[in-house]
Amino acid sequence: MRKFYLISSFFFLGFCPSVFSQDAPNLEASKPDTLIIDSLDNQVHYPGKPLIMSLVLPGAGQFYNQSPLWKTASFVGVELVSIFAWNYFQKEAEKRRDEYQNFADLNWTLDNWVTNRFNYPDQEQIDGRIWSSFPALTKLSGTHDLKLIISGDLANDLNLTRVSSDSLDIHPEWFYSGDIVVVRDRHFYENIGKYDQFVGGWNDARENWYWEEKDVGDSTEIVIKTPMKQKYIEDRYDSNQMLNAAKYSVTVLMFNHVLSGIESIWGSQKKGKERNAQQTRIDSKINLVYNPQNPLGVGGLKFSVYF
Questions:
Q1: Cβ neighbours of residue 132 under 8 Å, at least 6 residues apart?
Q2: Residue 114 placed within a domain
Q3: 275 falls within a domain
Q4: How many domains does the chain have?
């Protein structure tokens, strides 16, 4: 804030005639009519700086704006918790993914799948229905397929290295050659747990398969399972839930940066308005000026203007 002091002396001729007759030279020497300027510099504040600071590290912009400490602590706290949560859930998702994939590698085989396709399990009725009454269990081709790698003599004879599992419906002898293996990629682990046509690949399919109805809103659909498939579905679901939690933590982390940036702009603008209001406000003050040469001690009036 800049202070301007305007000092004016008004002499009372009627009350102090002796002042002018005897002390005029001294009054002239004192020079009571003067203008004094006092400048107070303010700290430079950059309004865009807290935004950049908050986008890099939430809470830094609030600290720069000298906001209440709880604001800085809140944004920093959310940042730390989000990072910790993302790290925890990501590791848990990967751990559980490895577990259900290892379970599938041990308990689902291409041999089981092809064998149960061409050599049905005992035609014992399960809740009134038998294996061959489900079209998905009586063929290898369907709405989805698995990727197969061909090697050895079969690859040389066919001049192929990769085929779809649908081809085994027509050429089951390719499998029995021993030169075909299934590609265990992301699609493989999704398909064997999601679609009925792959139920025959589980180790317990011949003895423990069953079917149940699933409500899908306007209708119901039949889902064919085994105890191993059900366990696999549950383990995979748990892993996906952990992965979703990790993604949610990243979302919270990003929003924390954005919200901290927005709040820092708002806080900076509020501070700027307060400073402008102080700088444009005009205050005035009137005081008596002491003059020892005046018998009454009054040398005039001091009028101060602050703006």
A1: 120, 123, 138
A2: no
A3: yes
A4: 1
